[in-house]
Amino acid sequence: MDLGVDPAHQADRLAAYRPRVPTSLLAVEIPAPDLPAGEPAADGEVDGFDQPTLDPRWSTLRRPATPDWVTLTARPSHLRLHGGRSPQSLVGPSMVARRVPSPDGAFEATIEYRPRSFRHLAGITAYHNTRNWYFLHVTADDEGQAVLRVARCDRGELSVDEADGVPLGEARRLRLGLDLQGAVLRFRHDSGDGWQRIGSPLDATVLSAEHAEEFENGQIRALGFTGAFVGPWAWDLTGGA
């Protein structure tokens, strides 16, 4: 995919998404939804993060929800998520997600986050497995300024949409959302001026079990049995390889 950037620069950017061991803990916070008192979400579910442990409808990826990386008690009515390893790593990811129950639906989260380098990323994901996912995330550009971008992985092929990145200025709190409509996935964001689309419509079938199944020389390489999930995801890739 041609993003209109220097190939060497793009290779360095993509290298930041490879497996690394975090040496620092950069946290993203997910506040309770900003709804009027007593008002439920229309035709949906809202988690106010007002309990000391995660609701059982949330899942974590390959590790239990222990206080060293996820907590609901450090700040009332907030989920605090410390950055973990990249998706190619089989240990140490920092994802809290919910299973997608229908081909049509939406997910929204408000995040408070400020990256210190392009190796810090936090946002929301639509995820099937380590080789098939989409990630709307806040990171830092070459000048260290916060920017919102979309990354995607399709059967292990990674790309980052730098050309359509949205500069965030000094904003620390913003809403992120995604919409699933059958085979189409769209991301959106709101930093105070209302919802805006980011990027082009995406192929939601990448998140399906049928797409995730891979064969090599007639042998099964990967099985697609987990189903799709959506939720917040945070990476801290500042460690050594």
TrEMBL record:
Gene3D superfamilies (alphabetical): 2.60.120.200
Domain Beta-xylosidase C-terminal Concanavalin A-like: 47-237
Top-rank lineage group of the source organism: Bacteria
Name this polypeptide is given: Beta-xylosidase C-terminal Concanavalin A-like domain-containing protein
